[in-house]
Design a protein that fits this description.
mainly beta, 10% helix, six-stranded mixed β-sheet
Length: 652
């Protein structure tokens, strides 16, 4: 049977698995091992299995010793793990598709016609591969608001009927055209769309809302903050270094306390073709970022994605983009103060002193965890006063020490090794080359940081580390303890006295993922976790209205874990700690993204990304893998809305 080799999804996974960090900084596994050895919890040596692990003492003790701290427990009936062609949700809940790729967003958008796609139509329709989902209530209404959605990347073999052919036992695109590339570009970016809950409890888009908006690679944007206008951001099309068209590879994101939408640019290196001379001033910078990735053919039709023609263009991507969803005419801004790297997301909270604190993971093996602390404070009475808060502040990178502390090290020009002697002439250089600056500070090399989610009620921060099969025996550390870490783990940071701006915190491992029935895996789910409740590859996460943690995954499959990706409820306190329950299951080939709750916790939005992308399906024949797909043509990424039958909070 034919297999698609190096689909966009596989290319993304392959590049995240590379691990371009050659710094000698200690890895998280090294630190964990030394920490627990010092505390006397580890006896003997690690197992020699490729996935041997240590066991977190905190996870082992929690069930018996800790007391619940007012957190509500989960009370839904768990569903069975497995693999099939549709989605499943816990009994007593409804899960319905709210939006799909191609659905009209703007009032004058045409209906989706897969046989007659155009870039002009796609600019007005829901984009492809929806990842981050955010909800912004309108007028304080839990049942009406703006849904903001990132469109991360495209799967052309699933998008274009007749374009994919079999060649040398592979399925490839036979011939690229400029129109196909332009459609792909229009399908990237994001969507802002008003939605409302009806009297019958069902949700629907408000098609004629004046706030509806599509953001794509053609959307004019402003570059702001310390790197704005720097010569390294100037191109032939923009001599100012302050204007850029569009945003790409928007993975997770965030919604700020003042109601703006943050789009995190992640694997931006994959969009560039061409080569730079080995002695070019950006050569080392681009090597650290993986530029050029050569995933897409955009550079064949658009000069700015060809390094030989626009060598500075990659420096204009890899930032956090802030969008004002309340004003569809507002120019999005790339906030350079938050650094340039492969941002998985950007979750922002209001600190107790009023400052904004934003967390991000750099989604590649052996890269870092960051937080940004604004200089100014949030003005609750004047929304406009907050609109440039993210242009001024301090970006920090985390060092996880073996004594259980976290040192948040400031990335400030002139401090430590961030000087002209090391190639940093200004703060702009530090931010353009954030990865190299963090290398020099000795940040801890992590097992592919994904979402970083703060819980304002508890002062805890949860870091999703999805996996790292490149980590070798002897290259582990306290916070990344497993060589050949195939299943990932979750770290819990406790910010000192609930101060999220603190530069010194503590950490522990909440959970090591994988099948707990296989001893050498060393998973640390609690004994109360069922055979359906464990998971691998944590990716996105959310905190619900009661402060409980929900984790979505990316990478589970029939081959790897015998189950699809999905959404699991994970206990963090008392006897419930490290207990996980399966709430929602994706169709085959899909990744689970989102998730986000309405403020009262009575509605949950989920993103089902790249369904059918199991390496076998094509747009015209998704039934290659699952015959029942014939009634669901074409395979379309979707946002799903989950509500409880009869109303009430999700999970209770």
């Amino acid at each position: 049977m034919s297999k698609i080799i190096q689909t966009p999804t596989e290319k993304r996974e392959a590049t995240e698995d590379v691990g371009r960090n050659i710094a000698d900084n200690p890895t998280m596994g090294d630190i964990i091992n030394r920490r627990y050895s010092r505390r006397g919890f580890l006896q003997g040596t690690l197992a020699t299995s490729a996935i041997a692990v240590t066991v977190s003492p905190l996870a082992l003790m929690a069930a018996g010793d800790a007391q619940a701290e007012g957190m509500s427990t989960f009370s839904f009936d768990e569903i069975a793990a497995g693999v099939d062609e549709t989605h499943h949700v816990a009994p007593g809940y409804n899960a319905k598709v709210l939006l799909r790729w191609g659905d009209p967003v703007l009032a004058d958008a045409p209906e989706f016609d897969p046989q007659n796609q155009s870039a002009a139509a796609q600019e007005k329709q829901f984009g492809y591969n929806n990842d981050y989902v955010g909800f912004i209530p309108l007028d304080g209404n839990d049942d009406r608001g703006l849904l903001v959605v990132n469109h991360e990347y495209t799967n052309p073999e699933l998008m274009f009927p007749g374009a994919a052919v079999e060649r040398d036992d592979e399925i490839v695109i036979d011939e690229w055209t400029k129109e196909m590339v332009d459609i792909e570009m229009a399908a990237h970016g994001g969507t802002v769309i008003e939605i409302q809950k009806g009297e019958d409890g069902s949700w629907s888009p408000v098609r004629d809302s004046a706030k509806n908006r599509r953001i794509s690679v053609s959307t004019p944007m402003e570059i702001s903050g310390p790197a704005a206008g720097h010569p390294r951001l100037q191109t032939s099309a923009d001599a100012s270094g302050r204007k850029v068209f569009g945003t790409i590879n928007n993975c997770a994101g965030g919604v700020t306390p003042w109601g703006t939408y943050l789009m995190a640019e992640e694997n931006t290196h994959g969009y560039f073709l061409g080569e730079l001379p080995a002695d070019h001033k950006e050569a080392a910078n681009y090597e650290r970022m993986g530029v050029p990735g050569g995933w897409y053919n955009w550079g064949k039709f658009h000069d700015r994605f060809d390094l030989s023609k626009e060598p500075n263009e990659p420096n204009r991507f890899g930032w956090i983009v802030e969008v004002d969803p309340m004003n569809p005419d507002a120019t999005p801004k790339k906030r350079t103060a938050l650094g340039r790297f492969k941002h998985e997301g950007c979750e922002t909270i209001r600190n107790k002193d009023g400052r904004a604190v934003s967390y991000s993971g750099d989604d590649e093996r052996f890269d870092y965890v960051y937080k940004f602390v604004s200089s100014g404070t949030i003005d609750d009475e004047n929304r406009e006063a907050n609109m440039d808060l993210l242009d001024d502040g301090t970006l920090h990178v985390a060092r996880f020490d073996e004594d259980g502390t976290v040192e948040w090290m400031p990335l400030v020009h002139g401090e430590g090794q961030l000087t002209a002697e090391n190639g940093f002439e200004s703060q702009a250089d530090v931010l353009i080359e954030t990865r190299r600056a963090a290398d020099l500070l000795g940040a801890t090399k992590m097992d592919r940081p994904e979402d970083v989610q703060p819980n304002t009620e508890t002062g805890k921060v949860y870091v999703m580390l999805t996996n790292n099969t490149k980590r070798k025996e002897g290259d582990t550390n306290a916070a990344n303890p497993r060589p050949e870490n195939a299943f990932g783990h979750i770290i819990e940071i406790s910010e000192t006295d609930g101060d999220f701006a603190s530069t010194k915190s503590t950490w522990d491992i909440l959970l090591k993922c994988g099948d707990p029935s296989i001893a050498e895996v060393g998973a640390t789910f609690s004994p109360a976790t069922t055979e359906d409740g464990w998971f691998g590859m944590p990716d996105n996460c959310a905190i619900d209205a009661d402060g409980r943690l929900w984790v979505s995954t990316d990478g589970n499959s029939e081959k790897k874990t015998g189950r699809t990706d999905g959404l699991w409820a994970v206990g963090t306190e008392g006897e419930d700690r490290a207990t996980s329950r399966l709430f929602f299951r994706c169709p085959v080939g899909a990744e689970m993204c989102g998730p986000v709750f309405t403020p009262k916790g009575e509605t949950l939005f989920l993103a089902v990304q790249h369904p059918g992308d199991d390496g076998l399906a094509t747009f015209e024949n998704p039934a290659t893998r699952w015959p029942d797909f014939k009634d669901n043509l074409p395979v379309r990424p979707s946002v799903v809305v989950v509500t409880k039958e009869g109303g009430g909070k999700i999970g209770i």
